[in-house]
Amino acid sequence: MHSTKKQKQMIEITMLSLITIAVLLLWETPIIYPIKLMVILFHEISHGFAAILTGGKVIDLSIELDLSGVCHIEDGNQIAIASAGYIGSFLFGMILFYSSLNRIFSKVFLPVIFGLIIIFLINSSKNEYLILITSGLVLLLLLIIFVLPSLISDIVLKTLGIISCFYIVLDIKQDIFDSTDYYSDAYILAELTGINQMFWGLLWLVIAILGIILLLRLSHRQLTK
Prior knowledge:
Elements: H1 2-25, H2 33-53, E1 57-63, E2 69-74, H3 78-99, H4 103-124, H5 128-146, H6 150-178, H7 185-193, H8 197-223
Antiparallel strand pairs: 1-2
């Protein structure tokens, strides 16, 4: 039994390492592009959810092929809305990764989350192309979860979760530390609070890194049961 657990741990570590290496090697290729688009979608949707939860309204949401996105909002708590982008999209990545560790969660709660995303877009975006692409991605993920063998679906969910989490880290670095004059979420928060945008960037980076560590610990704990 102990030997079996060790083997599972080695397989898991090897798999995650290979996924990470593959992602880094293929980062600027079309293979990773659809997943980057998905992360940007999560980012903008998180702004929208924060607006609605704080009494605001989403006027329109759109994402361009160059991976830029915008969510036009009226009212709501501006600090919560600006904070929700990076944190919310990172949480979506964590949810995808955790779904590979918990089959009940992936088959019950994940479809509900995807359904809410589709309903949100239908009511918030005037871009029919974006709604169509998102619906296709959601359908593909549901097929992966319910149709493919659990081993394969787990690998896919882990891959999507890892890429989402790492993309947030790189996105924060590019938006805040490489381009300090960029009108980023951190820049908006700096204007709203008077606290330097570097502080917000570091805060989100710390949250992201701690989240990645938590996911790896959960994955390790699952294998040792």
